Amino acid sequence: MERSIAHIALFAAMIAALGLVPQITLGFGVPITAQTLGVMLAGAVLGARRGAAAVGLFLLLVALGLPLLAGGRGGLGVFVSPTAGFALGFPVAAYATGLFVEHVRLRPVGLVAGLGAVFGGIVVLYVFGAAGLAIVLDKSPVEAVTLVAAFIPGDLLKAAITGMLVQALAKVRPQTLAWHRAAPGAGDLRL
């Protein structure tokens, strides 16, 4: 239990730290940030429930006013800005990534993590992000999806990095991937 709490807090801190990486803000007010990498990693390493909890903790701290989002943003205003859909989608994206890695039986584990990151951290997150942009910027769904498409190349790179990091973690600390050990038929982490 204590280890789970420590992992959740560690990943919330990692997502916050990734907000310090320099960003590029697009013309419609949504930055390209490394924090989505943290969301992908939270789900891919911690699994669905603990990954979503880590991102939920991070968002709670943002809501309390801590300037943890990229660009030093925080407070309740974030949740009515053009980034609102993405922020609200973060825990769902981590959960979806974790659910994918917990239930899809492929080898190597890095491939599963990378595909899970594409599913949760891109497909699922973009649904929330596009919906938020459509509402806040008064865009049609097609216009909002077109705006969100600008993030695809960078997010595919982040999904690949997620897969590589999980693969490396499986080699050096396989016990960290609790979702994998708990899965039926997951006796080994063949690489």
UniProtKB/TrEMBL annotation:
<keyword id="KW-1003">Cell membrane</keyword>
<dbReference type="GO" id="GO:0015225">
    <property type="term" value="F:biotin transmembrane transporter activity"/>
</dbReference>
<dbReference type="GO" id="GO:0005886">
    <property type="term" value="C:plasma membrane"/>
</dbReference>
<comment type="similarity">
    <text>Belongs to the BioY family.</text>
</comment>
<keyword id="KW-0813">Transport</keyword>
<keyword id="KW-0472">Membrane</keyword>
<dbReference type="InterPro" id="IPR003784">
    <property type="entry name" value="BioY"/>
</dbReference>
<protein>
    <recommendedName>
        <fullName>Biotin transporter</fullName>
    </recommendedName>
</protein>
<keyword id="KW-1133">Transmembrane helix</keyword>
<feature type="transmembrane region" description="Helical">
    <location>
        <begin position="76"/>
        <end position="97"/>
    </location>
</feature>
<feature type="transmembrane region" description="Helical">
    <location>
        <begin position="109"/>
        <end position="137"/>
    </location>
</feature>
<keyword id="KW-0812">Transmembrane</keyword>
<dbReference type="Pfam" id="PF02632">
    <property type="entry name" value="BioY"/>
</dbReference>
<feature type="transmembrane region" description="Helical">
    <location>
        <begin position="51"/>
        <end position="69"/>
    </location>
</feature>
